[in-house]
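User: Hello, can you help with two protein structures?

Assistant: Certainly.
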Amino acid sequence: QVHVEESGGGLVQPGGSLRLSCKWSDDSIWLVEWFRQAPGEQRERVGDVGRSGVSSYEDFAKGRFTISMEVAKRTVFLEMRNLTPEDTGVYYCKAIQPGGVPHWGSGTLVTVSS
């Protein structure tokens, strides 16, 4: 079983920045996706990054969020800037093995509030 763990969440003021991390326990992971879930809302995709370093983003994340991977450290980062209260939610990491086998973390809470 692959273990996946997010970290870095917390309270940040509007306009601030935050960097989340996602670490996994298996070298076979080839793609990592970030999702988020606001209170009372469905989970939505933020973006993803592959071992090649190529990333993609949903429209709301373009220009404000950056996803990067450090393969040797089995870690993916989600850097967020110009945060607004609408970015509040639990952020989840999904690490994917070849064949599409997904492994989810338990999430890290981001609260954007003054």
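That covers the first. Now for the second protein you mentioned:
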Amino acid sequence: QVQLVESGGGLVQAGGSLSVSCAASGRSFSLYGVNWFRQAPGKEREFVAYIDGSGSRTQYADSVKGRFTISRDNAKNTAYLQMNSLKREDTAIYYCNWSNYWGQGTQVTVSS
């Protein structure tokens, strides 16, 4: 059984930066890509970013392109999402997804 644990969320002012992490238990972390999704209150869960198993290919939602950077360290079984120039509309619970597994989410709140 694989577990994904997100961490690093918190409260930040608009324009600030925050990094969230997703640590996976078990082996074979590099076999699959990692997705970050987010869900704001009253809204559906939406795709944020993707990185492939080797870390060589990434994709971003248009809303975060140029501000967020996804990365991974397969030796540490961990994926990261560096968020810069944060906006109030980035406020959401951020979830990581690997294969069929989801983390519990971490809250990111951006204040004005």
